[in-house]
Amino acid sequence: MIQMSHVQFSNGELDDFGMPKNFQSYLIAGRNATSTEAKIGSGIAKVYCISINATPLNPDTVVDGNGIEGAIQKAIAILKDKHPGYEFRTLK
After folding, report:
1. Is 30 exposed, middle or buried (CB count within 10 Å of its CB: 0-12, 13-18, 19+)?
2. In this structure, are residues 7 and 25 in contact, taking their beta carbons and an 8 Å threshold?
3. Distance of CA 57 to the CA centre of its chain
4. 92 pLDDT exceeds 80?
5. Who's near 40: CB < 8 A, 6+ residues apart?
6. What are the residues facing 9 on neighbouring strands?
7. pTM of the entire structure?
8. How far, CA to CA in Å, does 23 sit from each of 12, 38, 62, 87?
9. Which residues sit opposite 73 in a β-bridge?
10. d(CA 25, CA 86)
């Protein structure tokens, strides 16, 4: 099973059209780890940059022992640390 989360960070400034001037958008794809990747029950989240200004994670894969949701939340926490002072939102 794969879970997706689309998250965005912006500095709060809007352009003339009401869109964020400086935003960084990411797609996080989470899945169950295989037995050769991590302990059974672990989740893996891969972070994809989907905007030009997005700062890539290095490495771009996050592993967490609390399943898929744990890996996605860990990836979001790492991204939040990389964007201090930016507004965060999850997009659907």
Report:
1. buried
2. yes
3. 9
4. no
5. 33
6. 24, 88
7. 0.88
8. 9, 33, 22, 9
9. none
10. 12
